[in-house]
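Model: You mentioned two targets. I'll fold them one after the other.
Researcher: Yes, keep them separate.
Model: Target one:
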Amino acid sequence: MKKNYSLLVGLTLSAFGLMAQNPTLDFVSTYRTGIFDGGAAEIVSYDAASQKLVFTNADANTVEILDFSNPNSLTSVAVVSLDTYGDGVNSVSVYNGVMAVAVEDDPKQDPGVIVFFDMNGTFISQVTVGALPDMVTFTPDGNKVLVANEGEPNDDYTVDPDGTISIIDVSGGVANLTQADVTTLDFSGFSAANYPDVRVFGPNADLAADVEPEYITVSDDSQTAYAVMQENNALAVIDLSNNTITALLPLGFKDHSIAGNGIDASDRDDMINITTHPVFGMYMPDAIAYGNINGQGYIFTANEGDARDYSGFSEEERIKDITLDSTVFANVDSLQDDEVIGRLNITTTMGDTDGDAEYEELYAYGTRSFSVWNATTGALVWDSGDQFEQITSQEYPNDFNANNDENDSFESRSDNKGPEPEAVEFAVINGIPYALVGLERIGGIMVYDVSNPTNPQFVLYTNNRDFSVVNAELPAGGTNDSIGDLGVEDILFIPASEGPNGQAYVVTSNEVSGTISVFQPNNFTVSVSEETVNSFVVYPNPAKGDEIRVSVEGDYTIYDLSGRMVGSANQTNRIDISELVPGTYVIRSADTTQMFIRQ
């Protein structure tokens, strides 16, 4: 446990009963589809009014509705086939009793559809959107539905539709929708020449065709959306007040030669070896999430990485199979060994800086991390470095960088994106903001306290996977009850205000095991760190009047000892507490926690 630190009036944390806890994500239950390694549980959403979960099953081309009123025992109440509407379900989002489902066409280069159902699975309406609608979400106010239309090429790379963003106005109700309510935005106004740091690299492609929107998140005021183009390593900003794309932000690269940014790059050295290498990582996020912390918006990204690999065009190669410039890489022979970085996958579309067919720079897929970005400027605020591999190597030394479809696979992913961060969710639990990150390969959820976005703190790692189940017992066509969750694809946070019995829950959908699993946060209580406890002073303390003052002007939030937010103030050093009943309270700034007594 952490030590107690005296406050201004000589009171200690133990006097308030706030000794540091051991926060946990406790397993509650699992719903099993019975399908193994078939994408049977990919995207999950929740309707608080009906207390139902809905998830996509790509294997069956369905969405399934679960009764969540008893999280300890999930039961299926309806299965909705999408065969009538298209060839493949990709995403689902629920708002106030209505679900929006994204369905691609066959071929997927043709326009897809968004289909609306009620929470019993009854059809309401549908509209056409762009090619390959890969992700759909309601805005927080429920007035619009946003769609990331990925626009992938065909396998021959002879047809490559534009990547687009569709905005559906549902403010008049989904029952009255017409195609006139759909605005589909393309990137024709953006030139690759003006955005040299955005990856535009498909054969003969312009920027509009080459960008592939993957995922969308929305600001809490429903005014701004952010769409990530994974393969392009870029983020688009959309103004929802006038439905325009206002900015295209390249995400840049991570230097794996810097201490703290190391990777385990070889699956053939039979050891855990997280170290620096002369390689750059392309962030290339999959899922992204928006969070507002003390009035500033941030984008949280799960930096998975993804390569284009088609019969008509492939960018992926191993370092041992390319020619390195020996004037840049002095130790070429040893670098290209399988036991060093020879088997690491990189892109061939970048790195030959002088066009001589020798590579002066190396760019790998993903960064094996999650990042925090300033939503206003697009600047990188923080990255978790090599923490994911360091943590998993300590927690699962015999299964480090394992794959998600076999248990006896130590280090099998070291040459290819490692733990592969896939999913991310922003959650506020007992007044504290957290980032929840799902690892697709080894599995599990990383939890970070992001109260200070410039220095998030690791809280816990939990993995609902049983590595003792031998591969011979893994099924070819049906799920194995004992294996647990494999292949985290999506993470959903249900706040206590919306959850059954007033409890908060975390739900994961797991595409390889075909499972929906439920977890409950426990002991996520207000904490005080040694580094920040004295960063500002509250006075008078105890407070006998209706106002307290703080020594530093800023943004502050007040919580009672149950973690419930009871007040806030922005850009001030004088805070009104007249509405607070006598008792002990916690006051937080962006990076500091203090306590005071209201008498």
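Model: Target two:
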Amino acid sequence: MAKQSALGGRLGNVIKNSSLGLINNVLPSVLRFFSRYIFIIYFGDALLGVNSLFTDVVLLFSFAEMGIFSAVSFFLYKPIAEKDYEKAQSFLALYRKFNIAIIVMVSVVGLGFLPFLGLIKTPEPMPDLWMYYLVFLAQNILSYFFSYRTAYLTAAQKAYQVSFISILTSVLSIVLQIVVTVLTRSFMGYLLTDLVLNVIKVFWTNQYILTHYPETKLNAPKPLDADTRKQFFKKTKSLFVVRLANLGISQTDSIIVSTMVDVVLWGYVSNYLSIKKIGSMALSAFSLGMLPSLGNLTAVESREKQIESFNMYSFFSAWLYLNFFAGFVILVPPFVAMTFGEIRVLDDLTCFLLFFNVLYNGLLEAVTILRDARGLYDEDLKLTIAAFVGNLVASVILVWLFGLPGVFAGTLIGTTIMYGRPYVIWREVFGEKNFSYYRLAFITIVEALIAYALLQFVIAPLIWGWQSNLLGLILLAVVTVAVTNLVFLLVNLRNPQLKKSLSLVAGRFIKREKV
């Protein structure tokens, strides 16, 4: 009974963190997508490409914070679960010291990029490019303020409690950006509006945590012992490199296209990416909501319970990414044609590679979360570096040979190298060799290709040829969901994970109805 209660509590926290994380991430992204209409009308495709490029460039500087944030969260799971607030404070105090060093380092590295802005290929000179870039850099630096307190909430599985602040400030920022754009037609005003609202969000969130979690005030915390500090620094160093390599794989496409092809073309790609981001954030909300619970699970539960829960998470995650791929690869091109015009529609190969990369990388999501929950960054270090180098070299060569599709093909090659991760992490966590994860990935990819072939070459031409309008798009969406899940069900009809997942979800809703 106690184990059932623990699992139910963990599932409840996953649902809360995931659902509110979903609203927090997806709602502003949906609103921001529709604000692109105004953006394109007043600022054009070139500034749209610049906006997307700088977002990716400054995100590269987040590697420092993300590495330490994850390491701190890993070390906080156990003391929070055991209510050892003195030790938790010691880790937070160490994190606070890191923040000062991070802000200095990111500022220096970020300013070092200024001389390279001239490499961006724009249709006409942009003398204010450096000013726009500095605002993006300031946004990035701001995100490090008080992040050690946010790490505490994340590890305690209570991040949903501050979601309302993020939702409110994000929505208000988007609305005010539209107003400022229409009234002033100033791209700098557009950027500064978002910066001001982010300042409000950061300080408001910090005050909320201080009020409700006074243990985060850090009044003369006890220093960590030498052995614990050594473990922390070792794990942080490995995670630092792993995060940097991962960001290199995911965030270099915009730099390659903007410097080797054209920033306007990247503006077209950004329309697709903005739609993809909505779906990715929805999936990430589930993953981030799952991480603290999985971290708690691996800290206190038996090996059998860990394997059972992990298999359920990975199966459910594969189903989500399958639906993401099929839905977006089929529906996004006609949607872009309707909203932004035919001129901004990418070719079929580029669209396929872009969204297949999301599926291909997403199938590693569950094992990556397991790695983060257990802090196994040393074991993953060499593999991730190899993937980063492979992705960068392949993308540069292939974009030079084949243009835009080449950059996404290069990303596919880099991700393939990362498929050594399930073998390595499973062996380290559970002490045995296991290839079931590869079987799940292979079957999901086959399901995706079958669904794609049926929809892209048979069903979509019939529906879109008959009704190339909103009605046709809605009908195509309904058929896409139906076909994708029919393929999934037929393939997994005898899979015990399907029955377990359905039983757990059904049990959760039945329990709610009884309450």
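Researcher: Noted. Anything on target two?
Model: Confidence is low (pLDDT under 50) at residues 1-13.
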